[in-house]
Specification:
Elements: H1 3-19, H2 42-52, E1 58-61, H3 77-85, E2 87-90, H4 100-126, E3 142-143
Parallel strand pairs: 1-2, 2-3
């Protein structure tokens, strides 16, 4: 059982070495899911999700090397807050880069997640404990903004 992560890591290193010399195409179908990020407004999205919908889940990106990438500095309260409120993933995020546009949009997704979660962390830390009893919104973990 312990060999699976080792094998996966070795495979990832080998495959990334194969891609190093190849140039990426300008765009790809995988970039389509993330193009909304070009017009995204983190503050407006935060206001809609948190203040209007009472959705206190943290955002994360899918990534092979960091399965729950939240973009937040490690602190004792962060894992506790994520455990309490849950998280939702931005669909289309991955470590597998298929084009130059996809790479650019994945970087935007990581920045978006970091900004959104920073706003959420400040919100959760600064509201009275009684208001934090809001339950996470039902539904699963994909976000299509």
């Amino acid at each position: 059982m312990a060999r699976s992560p080792t094998v996966a890591l070795a495979l990832a290193v080998i495959l990334s070495g194969c891609h190093r010399g190849a140039s990426l195409p300008e765009t790809s179908p995988e970039a389509e899911q993330l193009r909304w990020l070009d017009q995204a407004d983190v503050v407006a999205d935060f206001t809609e999700r948190v203040e209007r919908q009472h959705d206190l889940r943290f955002l994360s990106v899918y990534a092979f090397t960091t399965p729950t990438a939240f973009g937040l500095d490690e602190s004792p309260e962060v894992p506790q807050l994520i455990q309490r409120h849950g998280d939702r993933h931005i669909e289309g995020t991955t470590d597998i880069i298929t084009s130059a546009e996809h790479r650019r949009l994945l970087a935007k997704a990581s920045d978006y997640v970091k900004q959104y979660n920073t706003l959420l962390l400040h919100f959760l830390v600064n509201i009275p404990t009684s208001n934090q009893s809001l339950e996470p919104t039902a539904g699963c973990c994909e976000v299509h903004i």
